[in-house]
């Protein structure tokens, strides 16, 4: 590819018109003279394209026409300009390359395109967010909301429930089945030997978004001042089911000794004052009077209240059921 000449606006047209007059040739004849098509020559005349520098010098020399001064453009001169424009467009769309801001912006653009046309990106072999249908309100859903409020957590792409591998193994199996029934997704189960923990995880941006729509919040639960969602509190059955999920994860039965014998106690722990208040109010609605004697804790001491709790609300955590039944068995022997 040869160099081009960039003449001031209007000068290229006037130069070629002068060549046509001096040569007394037609456009088609001059095109042949320049070894180009008539269409190309007309494009030069309309200043659509810059003319070849050597060809214009030849025309000026052969037909004694002065060639105006202009800028010589080296071969592929347009590449740098195109790259510059392309770079500006890239910055506009994706942000600066190689920076955290740029990567974030590029990621957001990519995710938005995948949301708009998931089938296309799935066919290309790209990862596409799993579709998820929000389940209808139910007692089982409300119980899982309580579980997530208790020992759960949300990130931008994953919902997780943390349990003890020492005492909650059977309960983890129950929760895995409950999640599958309610959400129609199978959670992944991980166990860590070093800290004796079990983790139930459900991945998916849409899943996390759906839990947020149901009233949960991602991030630090204390900073977010978590509470039982309003749709749960408005329904007595949903509210008690939610408290069951909370108690089975962040509460439990314990035994305390007095001179007259060993007694069972009920305790729920949460350092979120708003959540603790919601649990206390739900218990009062069903006639149970839990006492707040320590910061972040609710207690019930008398056996009547505890039996009433198990009758009205109950537990799905085998460790709680076992402790309650063992205490009743001991009392019956007396």
Automatic annotation (TrEMBL):
Record Pfam families: LAGLIDADG_3
GO biological process: intein-mediated protein splicing
Residue ranges occupied by any DOD-type homing endonuclease domain in the UniProt entry: 144-288
A GO molecular-function annotation: endonuclease activity
Signal peptide residue numbers: none
InterPro entries listed in its UniProt record: Homing_endonucl (IPR027434), INTEIN (IPR006142), Intein_endonuc_central (IPR004042), LAGLIDADG_dom (IPR004860)
Protein name: DOD-type homing endonuclease domain-containing protein
